[in-house]
Amino acid sequence: MQQRTKNAVVTFAIGLALNILLGVGKLVAGVLSRSASVSSDALNNISDAAVALVTVVATALSARGADHDHPFGHGRYEYIATFVVGAGILAVGAEVLSSGIKRIITPVTVNFGVIVWVTMGASVAVKAFMAALYLIRARGNDTLKAAAMDSISDVAVTTVVLSCAIAEKYTGAHIDGYAAVAVAAVIVVFAIKILKTTISRLLGERPDRALYDTVRDIILSFNKVASVHDIVINDYGAANKIAEADAELPGDMSFVEVHAICDRIERAVYEKTGIRLSVHADPIIDGDERLNELRRRVREVLDSYGATAHEISIDDDNKIVELDIRMPLAHSPEEEITAQVKASITAVLQYSVNIHVDYI
């Protein structure tokens, strides 16, 4: 098992034990005091313990290497674990909200005693310690980061519950139910944020810009590479990323030379980023004056939109011009851009124009 995984498993095991202790302690305090907010906070900790248990298992599974059925490894177990964290927190938030509303409708006199103050005060201290521990050991582990933020929100929630308990004890106002609803609101918002982020990763999101730029700059550092496009980085876990890219190379290079430079690029990217890259070589044809003119005209159109074109080719047999256009933003005026590009091309060649649009 990798050191990164060992650290995560040990950290979650510590969190599991502490959450069980806090949950049991708060539950006892909540039952004895008849406080809905304290009992709700106890449920929050118990759910955190259950989530930590699931996460320990999932984190250990994510460290498994590639096999016949899973050639890209098992790193996405970590994202599944983060999703479980979010789903568990959301379920608790819904339950806490329900109990808080019931307590608002039917207020109950709460009996606050020493056990409540000691339990809640200790909870704030322990949760602060857990948040610090998770953050220190995160090191790129999204599940640990999620657990750290959950602990920070727990500190805030428990502080609110404690403050409301003090206010209710000394004013006699029945605000215990409102405190429970406030706890629920924090829990639900945090859970939705976790779920949204994790679902985005599981669906496949645009790679981190800094990582994208690093890969691009490494490829462009080779003096034979004129440009690079269509960089795709597939995420199979924090420590397992597979990528592909198209690099434009002089068309007069031999097959052996192209193969050699592609190999060097792939090794360089792996050594510097740990990403396994596959390079596709696109030949640059400079001898065709018509092609050079098309490139110039298309570039003039696209520069004003921040878009770029690549793989422009002329098929004289079928009288077709084909090219790819990369749109800079999801809301780019696609129809307007493609119409202008087609007009600029047909002004030079009366051929059909096939444009392939991508946002990669």
Task: Note down, in words, how this protein is organized.
It contains ten helices and six strands, in the order αααααααββαβαββαβ. It starts with a helix and ends with a strand. It has 360 residues and is α/β, with parallel strands linked by helices. Strand 5 (320-326), helix 10 (334-346) and strand 6 form a beta-alpha-beta unit. It is elongated, with a radius of gyration of 29 Å.
Key phrases:
single chain; 360 residues; alpha/beta; three-stranded mixed sheet; 6 strands; elongated
Order of helices and strands: HHHHHHHEEHEHEEHE
Q: Could you say which structural class the secondary elements and strand pairing correspond to?
A: alpha/beta
Q: What fraction strand? A: 5-15%
**Span between N and C termini?**
35 Å
Look at the structure and give the mean pLDDT: 83
